[in-house]
Amino acid sequence: MSAPHWARLGELGFVRGMRLFVHIYRLFGRWPFRIALYPVLAWYVLTNGVARRASRDYLQRLHALSNGNTPVPTLRNVLRHFGAFAETMLDKVLTWRGELADAPVQVEGREALLRLRDAGRGGVIVTAHIGNVELCRRIGESRRGLQLNVLVHTRHAERFNRLLKEANPDADVRLIQVTELDMATAVMLAERVAQGEFVVIAADRVPVSRQTEVIETDFLAATARFPAGPYILASVLKCPLLAVIAGRRGDVAHITIRQLAERVTLPRADRHAAIVPLAAAFARLLEAECLAAPLQWFNFYPYWTPSCTSPSANAG
Amino acid sequence: MADLDLEIKNLIIDTLGLEDISVADIDTDAPLFGDGLGLDSIDALELGVALQKRYGLSLSAESAETRQHFASVASLAAFVAAARTK
Q: What sequence ranges are listed for the domain Carrier (chain B) (predicted)?
């Protein structure tokens, strides 16, 4: 694969810049934040061809799928796309600081999660780099909180942890750095799930490790690669599998919760075949969210399997 | 010790759903992974979780050590006997 892997793109160098912008927001408010942000974004978009083309490719595919109902893949909309990303990064930081505690969040399908929580059962939650997924901490807060163990890749985690620790030293979510699922980690996660906690793992990015199994399934009318790891983890932990997808509906944050399986069982003879429908169901949820909130998709690297590149994807 | 061997063989069969294999088919000293019983890394994870649940073992983050414990039924039984908390 010659295309740059997302893990090497350094999360767009945004994290360091975000610290400055968080300060601007805190001192002056959201509009000055935006005014300061756009020249930086414009410079970023113009100098970072990989991210720019990835955004345009995504907008192009979505535009075709939606019969023209989503933003046209123009440079202006690419800029808006990155603007939405920066605003969401700000919202994530504010969520961690507890500053968005009163902001409205629509939650669709909350019962699936609360039913498990109230039964004292845990599970695996697959999620994606869409919208402000930090808001899923708010789902359970009305009564008893949800204990979340978020699995992250080291390269990102260290920088994010620093920023987020700075933001809220008492953050109640555990970030666990996992690049390979080893036995000690699996056992530790099994114990947490047995105590009714949830393990959160992104299922929209193929991990860094080359041995990792990859599932190919349809996403926005072309073949894309998804990791098998989250589903294997759910099968090892023998627990329910849920998808939690964040997004927006207009100005309001939105979260979709779906149970994908009561218990994931992968037959030894052909685990791959048993994972495909789960990954496909997840991809369909992503697709629905992209159609509903087109600019909240935050995977700015070549996402689709190269042989399925759409004809206009090369336009920078 | 022989009882524990048998218990672990049963646990392997139950945990991994090895329907076509019986306790008698598992050689106590044969490798569990690769050439022997032919288990893979995902089986190993499932087995680790099941062993922890049953015996309250704490597994080291040191993977070389874990690999030694999981070499065969015999080595697993020795490990369980020494490290079990329930």
A: 2-84
